[in-house]
Design brief:
Number of helices: 11
CATH class: Alpha Beta
Structural class: alpha/beta
CATH superfamily: Cobalamin biosynthesis CobH/CbiC, precorrin-8X methylmutase
Largest sheet: 6 strands, mixed
Shape: globular
Radius of gyration: 17 Å
CATH topology: Rossmann fold
Order of helices and strands: HHHEHEHHEHHEHEHEH
CATH architecture: 3-Layer(aba) Sandwich
Number of strands: 6
Number of domains: 1
Strand order of the largest sheet: 1-6-5-4-2-3
Helix content: 40-55%
Distance between the termini: 39 Å
């Protein structure tokens, strides 16, 4: 295989060209409003399965873009995703990114109540007094906690990006929101991760920055 010489500033552009070409070869035609998001998930992972497994509720992309435009915050369940999300661009629309996993009070309460830090983090996140996009890339218990809070009559999430990775309760936790009336972008199955959560957030943020309408 020959080495392809690409200028540093053009590597991402070239990567997306390759992704588009390979999707075409596979006979996959992504819906226009979902295209940039799914392609960025593939770009982050080099995994074309996301073209088949990434699920969107009706009008999901438009809803997410409107939330970002209105200054919504993003809450994630890992510091890795926190680091990967483009906070500088999000802040231009009035939004901030939060992760409460390293909060000492969260850790202490989780131990006292015999719960995961992810669950307690979501309880804390629901106290944010503005619209919130939840970007879950690691802990299915975060999704479960949000769902149980909603069913208990507490705050309903404004938007769910549900891409936790793993084997225990991962698929079942995702299905909770697929079968709800909460707008979502969710990857069915075991795959996902903090990098995918951040990639989806960034795709949406860049769409707003670049005035891409759906």
């Amino acid at each position: 295989m020959d080495i392809e010489f690409v200028k540093p500033g053009e590597i991402e552009k070239r990567s997306f060209e390759i992704i588009s070409h390979e999707l075409e070869q596979k006979g996959i035609d992504l819906p226009k409003e979902q295209e940039l998001i799914t392609k960025r998930a593939i770009h982050t992972s080099a995994d074309f399965d996301y073209a088949e497994t990434l699920c969107y509720s009706e009008g999901a992309v438009k809803t997410a873009l409107n939330l970002i435009k209105a200054g919504a915050d993003i809450v994630t369940d890992t510091n890795m995703a926190l680091s990967g999300i483009n906070k500088k661009v999000l802040e231009t629309f009035g939004g901030k990114v939060h992760c409460f996993m390293a909060d000492e009070r969260v850790a202490r309460e989780a131990q006292e109540r015999g719960m995961t830090r992810a669950s307690i983090s979501m309880e804390k996140a629901l106290e944010i007094n503005k619209p919130v996009i939840f970007a879950i890339g690691n802990a299915p218990t975060a999704l479960i906690s949000l769902y149980e809070s909603m069913k208990a009559g507490k705050r309903k999430p404004d938007f769910i990006i549900g891409v936790p990775v793993g084997f225990v309760n991962v698929e079942a936790a995702k299905e909770l929101f697929i079968n709800s009336d909460v707008p979502y972008i969710i990857n069915r199955g075991r795959k996902g991760g903090s990098n995918i959560a951040a990639a989806i957030c960034n795709a949406l943020i860049y769409m707003v920055r670049d005035n891409r309408e759906v």
